[in-house]
Each structure stands twice: as C-alpha cells, then as structure tokens.
C-alpha cells in the first residue's frame, strides 16, 4: 500500500512539474521524462543541472525532492518561511500547488539580488554534504566500529574501520525513507525506529567485482535479526529467547528474563527488513556448495582440514599454584586477556582452575609461566547436544566443537526435503530463498504453501560465517546460513583502534595518559592505526599515508607561496 501511495505522489509531482514548465516557458512534455525533467529544473532555479542525476539514487532522491521544492518555491516568489518549510517537507504536493494555482506566477530567481547568507553559507553546503555522504555511505564505503569480540584478535573490540561495499556490489536501499546516517534506530534513543516502511523496494544490488571467498572477513546483515526485542537485541536473538524461555509475546508486562545477571523486562517485539538488520562481521569459512564440518574444534571444508586463523581464540582451562601465581586484573591485562572472558572454575587444595579465552600463542606462554601447572583447550565432545546450536533439534546433536556435516546450498542446487532434515532448511524455504512461504508438515509429508514437496531447488547462494573467537562468537553455528542478499561488504581499512575499559580495566582506562604509552600499557593500539585489512591480518599503511599527507602539505604550501609572490612589472 505504501508503494502505491508513493507512486501516486510522484505522479502528482510530475503533473505539477508539467504545469510549472508551462509557466516557465519550457516544453511541458519534457516534465514527464524522469531525471531529465529535474535536469531542466536546475536551469529554472539557477542551480547546477547535474543535480538532476542525483535523482536516480534511491533514498538520496527523497532529500533532493525537498531541495527542489525549496528552490522552486523561491522561483515562484513563495519566500515566506512557512512556504519554504512546506515546499521542502511536502514537495510532491507543493509542485502541484505551484503548477495548478492560476494566481501563482513564475518569476525566476534573477530578482534575488544576493543569496541569503544562510542559504549560501549554510543550507546548500550542509544539504550537499549530507547528499554526498549518503551516496558514499550507501554505495561505496561506510564507517563501522567493532562492538563485540567475535573476531578477536583479528578484528578487535574498539577497531574503527571502513567497509568496501563495491566489491560484492552495493545493495540498493530497500527502505529508502530513513533518517540520514542512522541504521535502524534514531540517535539518542534506545528503540525509536529511524526508517519508514511506507515505501519498500525489491532486493536489488549493483554489479560487483567479486563474491565472498573462503577465509575472507565479511560484513553482513544479521539473518536472525528479522525479528528482535528492543532491550535484548544486544544480548541474544528473539528466536533464542523463545527457545530458552518459551515467550512469544514480549509485550506482556509480566515478561522478565535474566541474562547473565542482567534483568530484562517487557521487551517490545519488532520486525526489521533485511537492510535494517544489525551489521555483523565474521569470517566467511564456507561458500555456496561447500561441505562443512567441525571435528574437535577443527574446521573441515570439503573434507579438507583448514588452517586455524593466526589470531583465533579458544577457551582454555588453566590450573595454577596459588602460592606462586596471583591471577588478577593486572595479570590478565598484561596478556591482553579480557577480564570479561576470564572466570574462576574452582579450587583444589592450594591450586585453582580458571577459564581464559585466548589465542594459542598466549596459551603457550602461560604453559611456560612459573606457577602454571596445566593449560588445556576446552572441547565439547562429539554427540553432546547443545540447544543453542543450529538447527536446534536433538536429531542433530551438534555443538560448537563438533558440528555437521552440512552442505551449503547454492543457486540451482536441488536437495531432498523430508521431516527429518526440514529443521536445517526450513528458514531458507520460508524466508530467505524466494519470499515468504508457509512451511508445515502433515504426518510424514512436508508442505510448501500447502503443497507436498520431497525436494527443493535453491534460488540463492548461501554462506557460512564464523568468528575467530571460536568459543565466544554468535555465528552460523548459532543461527545457520547467511543468504547472499544479506551480504554488505568487506572490511578494508582500520584507521583507529582503542581498548574498551570493560575488557582492559587497567591499560584501557586513561585517554590522555595513554598518549605517551605503548599499545601494551596504554589505551591506544598504535600498531593497528592506518592498516589495510588482509585475509591474513593487518598490513600497515602508515608510511604511504604519511608520504601522501606530506606531499599534500608540500603542494599546498608551494601553491600559496606561488600565489603570494608579486609579479614583476615590465
């Protein structure tokens, strides 16, 4: 319904432009040609004609409609604040008002002797900074920060990076009517929606130059985020809440759960379109068509054991002699073991056992530390069912360390479907692959929109995403595959990185005091500044960036001196 209303508004605006062109002395039929009509409007309002090309960019063209409305109102001598505000906020109807009202004459903008200082110095520059930034952010590069430790220590909590959206093909916004630069929630609010669903576009993406490959780090929209509960979305998925607590009506005032000591009450349940779901970043370990299996914590793709990422983390049980070694925040901070991922497991006589989440090289260092008696990687045994692990069915007793085998569907692949394996494919069939469908069972039959099926041919490619923090990552092991239409882009550049004091309470606290400290002792991870994100880790670009900055400074200095140099008289 929203799409129909929007189409009607656009048609009304075109009809208004038809009459506006007549009043301005232009061939009226040209007002009916999309994009070209706004190219000509640029001449009417004495603004660059190339602005009209911006009208092909979804989302940004909505801003431009308001810009054109504002300037057309001035061209028709509707220059009171009330008129300008209405023209900017309701341009579709205002075009018709200007065109069809016989009492309103076209004057142009030549009688405006000098631009308002506000418009010239503030309004136009701000609007086009927003427009340019929206185009860059939506279709080329977007700034992200790493909020969770899923990819520790490859990409770390506190890394600020840029994501390349061109590589896989930028997605056209499906909900283009949104507050600029906000994702799904308005700034300074905890749950106010930042977008309108009156207008919804079908899934489209521009051509890219690659597809996700095995081992690449990928940013994507969280598949399980099609339904969320405000207040709990940062901690667990709606579907996990339902599995754990059996609640489906999160708006019930009696709803209350405890998540790791944090009490959550009355979480409002909301649905989100694909482009407004949370951004996650993981490593793509399996691509469409791959057979994937995890055996005792080791990943196998197509029956071939994969090398563990260099900085991959696991939980280890560490047994220490209390009289020799004291485990405290300073001990953990020195080894960059997050205090949020370390906890005691018990005491036996004068020894204690701790669980530490850390990379293999740190575990090896601990083995050689006086007072450490034993360091052993935690492994969930094969056949031990974990209800939080996909597909959340006892028929498949999988866990974090022993999972599969599973074959990832690819476009054109046909698989057999029955009541035994339906739990693996149900969400793909009902939600991901070809729009919304009803998947039910009747006895031993699987029904697809009420019709029995025994097989299905997939229309999309699917990927398997995992964190390098193998024992502390909500990834495909928790919620299954990632469809290609959820893929956003690839991290390419870390420009800044600092520690979170929650994880590093000693070195991660002081900002000013850390300016003269190294990465181990201070808050800033200097070695991660200005680094390219490669498949095997970060590659420093500090020297090239410094050279470019110096060349730019030198050129600017030389240009100013050249302009300031007096010209000799003949």
Question: How would you describe what is shown here?
Answer:
By secondary structure, this protein is of the alpha+beta class. The chain is built from 12 helices and 26 strands. Among the domains are: 137 residues, no CATH class; 88 residues, no CATH class; 44 residues, no CATH class. Strands 1, 2, 3, 8, 22, 23, 24, 25 and 26 form a 9-stranded antiparallel beta sheet that branches. Strands 11-10-9-16 form a 4-stranded antiparallel beta sheet, with no helix packed on it. Strands 13-14-12-15 form a 4-stranded antiparallel beta sheet. Helix 3 runs parallel beside helix 5. The protein is globular, with a radius of gyration of 29 Å. The protein starts with a helix and ends in a 6-residue tail after the last helix.
Give the overall shape, derived from the CA principal axes: globular
Determine the strand fraction and express it as a percent band: 15-25%
pLDDT averaged residue by residue: 87
Number of separate strands: 26
Question: What would the keywords be for this entry?
Answer:
single chain, 570 residues, alpha+beta, nine-stranded antiparallel sheet, four-stranded antiparallel sheet, 12 helices, 22% strand
Write the SSE topology:
Elements: H1 2-24, H2 36-44, H3 60-75, H4 81-89, H5 91-100, H6 117-139, E1 141-145, E2 159-164, E3 217-221, E4 227-229, H7 238-245, E5 256-259, E6 262-265, E7 269-271, E8 279-286, E9 291-295, E10 298-301, E11 304-305, E12 313-321, H8 329-334, E13 342-348, E14 351-359, H9 360-367, E15 372-377, E16 403-407, E17 414-416, H10 422-432, E18 439-442, E19 445-448, E20 451-453, E21 455-457, E22 462-466, H11 476-479, E23 482-483, E24 487-497, E25 531-534, E26 537-540, H12 542-564
Antiparallel strand pairs: 1-2, 2-24, 3-8, 3-24, 4-7, 5-6, 8-22, 9-10, 9-16, 10-11, 12-14, 12-15, 13-14, 17-21, 18-19, 19-20, 22-23, 24-25, 25-26
Helix pairs in contact: 1-5, 3-4, 3-5, 3-6, 4-5
